[in-house]
Amino acid sequence: MAENDLIKTLRMNYLYDFYQSLLTEKQRNYLRLYYLEDYALSEIADTFDVSRQAVYDNIRRTGELVEDYEDKLGLYRRFTRRQELYRALREHIHEPETLEQYIQELEELE
């Protein structure tokens, strides 16, 4: 798997975690099987007795939909920023002036 594909898969896994409750059951099933369980399009098509193209179109549209949710709600963006700030806090635990800056930024994310 190419690095870009791996990054996209990781991102879609997170977006799925954050926004799955906003998706239909069919959308959840297709994304879960494709991104989380690494099914091929043909395997998903066989499972649901639909064409490979139908699966591809649904995954593409649903991917666009969760990206749109992310643009509007920013749950993943805030999550990743919090993770960065927690790492920085651990690295600078003995620097009070730097800690205050990170703590303030964390509070602003809430």
CATH topology of the largest domain, anyone?
Arc Repressor Mutant, subunit A
Report on the biggest sheet.
none
- Total domain modules: 2
Spans where pLDDT lies below 50 across 5 or more residues:
none
The succession of helices and strands, N to C, reads: HHHHHH
User: What is the share of helical residues?
Assistant: over 70%
Q: Can you tell me the CATH class of the largest domain?
A: Mainly Alpha
What brief labels describe this structure?
110 residues; mainly alpha; Arc Repressor Mutant, subunit A
Polypeptide structure, described:
By secondary structure, the protein is an all-alpha fold. The protein folds into two domains: 71 residues, Arc Repressor Mutant, subunit A (Orthogonal Bundle); 33 residues, no CATH class. Helices cover 82% and strands 0% of the residues. It is built from six helices and no strands. The longest helix is centred in the middle third of the chain and has 22 residues. It is elongated and about 60 Å long. The two termini are 36 Å apart. The model has no long low-confidence stretch (mean pLDDT 91). Pfam families: UPF0122. Might take part in the signal recognition particle (SRP) pathway. This is inferred from the conservation of its genetic proximity to ftsY/ffh. May be a regulatory protein.
